[in-house]
Design brief:
There is one protein chain. By secondary structure, the protein is an alpha/beta fold. Helix content is about 40%, strand content about 20%. Helix 1 packs across helix 20 and helix 10 packs across helix 14. The chain is globular, with a radius of gyration of 23 Å. It is an enzyme of class 2 (transferase).
């Protein structure tokens, strides 16, 4: 097996810093790749939380002026991850999350902040660190999208490049004047470069210049080639279809493991899931719901947004109440949706429970105690909560989009697919279709034998990174072979 060196570039990496699923992938993939002969090191920004956790990192490069102020490149490790950290305090030493102020507004210099990350990624690709010269530079999402562009415009021998789209809705759009400030040539501003509706897009840079493009599920790879699903990039992705592929995400099955999970009230496994009922009772108590094993408990762990279909769930509340179901929701996001869910909880005590925010312990308990896990997204590149649900025996009820389509086998499709059913899928993504599927799920819930079969099928599904990491390793080796013979 040919060894491969890969530099991953990501704006967040779990468990160092996380705002969403990108961090989970960036944190789990390097560890899973070790079994496939891939040495991956990850470059990330030196946010305050990162610097606190890597206080003993080694300085390997220093600049007196890096994009407007002093900067350092550090090397360290954390929880099995080998990391390079770009410590540039004037760009990254700020309160708030990695992308927005404490008021939720994008940092006005985000273009410079993430151009700096991509620039050093390209320099590492060119050999800045002699002890680690990568065969591949793997850029994640728009924040790393300039790395393939810098490597292209440097016009020097370079490593292969891979661009992964985690969510095409986030495109890194900035004014054209930024080009000069970030050290790219002005001829990059054209339709075959960074130009995007009169401005520039960091995501487009990666899609235009990477040797290979991946996204996080096969169905999403097809959806983003359409004019609607591509959100402005459908034509470009159709033109590059020969180098575009979808590789499903996995989850860290050591973190999400009902046998060992320290966050749930009672541990269990596929051999005996009777303790799920005890977790359900604790979950009902946590959300101030009536104590009942016969009422199906629907769980939601989600950002509250239009994309996630959380307005459709509000429309389905009469169905949930009419069917005798309960709802426990954990999430935050759109202020109007937050207010409406809190109002629904106040109007229906004992039936609807809502916690606004995110709580890791509560998220694990929701997976372990919910009878079903709802993901009614209008589009979903892959989705991770439904994979966790399978792992914990919570039956997923999901929309027929993206990775939800690829990871759940509908109860009506099992015989045709040859695979055991693991949940329910609905389409089109409308309130009526969702309500019909909830009624169907309620009917099946009271057929204890069939419901138990759905749970056990989910528990036996491989949702780990093992096979997915092998697909990335094959992609890297295929790219290296193609470049070698070109």
């Amino acid at each position: 097996m040919t060894p491969v060196r890969v530099l991953a570039v990501a704006s967040e990496v779990y468990p160092v810093v996380k705002t969403g699923g990108l961090a989970d992938v960036a944190g789990a993939l390097p560890i899973a790749l070790k079994a496939h002969g891939v040495e991956m090191r990850t470059l990330m920004p030196g946010y305050p939380d990162v610097m606190r956790q890597l206080s003993d990192a080694d300085e390997i490069r220093r600049w007196p002026d890096y994009f407007g102020g002093p900067g350092r490149l550090l090397a360290g490790s954390h929880d099995g991850l080998d990391l390079f950290v770009l410590d540039v305090p004037h760009l990254y030493a700020r309160p708030g999350n990695p992308y927005v102020t404490q008021e939720g507004i994008d940092w006005p210099d985000n273009g410079v902040r993430f151009a700096a990350l991509s620039r050093v990624a390209a320099d590492i690709g060119h050999g800045l660190i002699p002890a680690f010269v990568p065969d591949i530079v793997h850029a994640h999402d728009w924040q790393a999208g300039l790395a393939p562009a810098y490597l292209h415009y440097d016009n020097r021998p370079r490593p292969g490049t891979v661009m992964t789209i985690h969510n095409i809705a986030y495109q890194g759009k900035f004014a054209r004047e930024l080009i000069g400030a970030i050290g790219l040539p002005w001829d990059a501003f054209n339709v075959n470069g960074l130009e995007y509706f009169g401005g520039i897009s960091f995501l487009k840079a990666g899609l235009q210049f990477a040797d290979r493009i991946t996204t996080v599920s096969p169905t999403y790879a097809q959806e983003i080639q359409t004019d609607e699903g591509g959100m402005g990039f459908g034509g470009l992705l159709r033109a590059r279809a020969s180098v575009l592929s979808g590789i499903l995400n996995g989850i860290d099955v050591s973190v999400w493991n009902p046998q060992t999970d320290p966050h749930i009230a009672y541990r269990f496994d596929a051999g005996d899931i009777t303790f799920r009922a005890a977790n359900k009772a604790v979950l009902q108590q946590q959300f101030n719901l009536d104590s009942s094993d016969e009422a199906p408990l629907l769980g939601v762990i989600s950002r509250l947004s239009w994309q996630k279909g959380l307005d459709l769930l509000l429309d389905a509340i009469p169905t949930i109440l009419g069917e005798g179901m309960q709802l426990a929701l954990l999430g935050s996001g759109d202020r109007d949706l937050q207010d409406r869910y809190q109002a629904a909880a106040r109007a229906n005590p004992g039936r609807i429970g809502v916690v606004i925010g995110y709580d890791e312990i509560l998220a694990h308990l929701l997976q372990a105690g919910s009878d079903a896990l709802l993901v009614p997204s209008r589009f979903e590149p892959c989705g991770l909560t439904q994979l966790c649900a399978l792992r914990y025996g919570a039956v997923p009820i999901v929309a027929r989009v993206g990775g939800l389509e690829d990871t759940i086998v509908d109860i009506g499709e099992a015989d045709r697919s040859g695979r055991d059913a693991t949940g329910f899928k609905f389409g089109p993504v409308t309130a009526d279709a969702f309500a019909r599927t909830l009624r169907k799920a309620n009917l099946i819930f009271h057929d204890k034998v069939t419901w138990r079969r759905l749970q056990l099928s989910g528990l036996s599904t491989d949702v780990s990174w093992r096979n997915r990491a092998g697909d990335y390793a094959a992609l890297y080796r295929g790219l290296m072979a193609a470049r070698y013979t070109a």
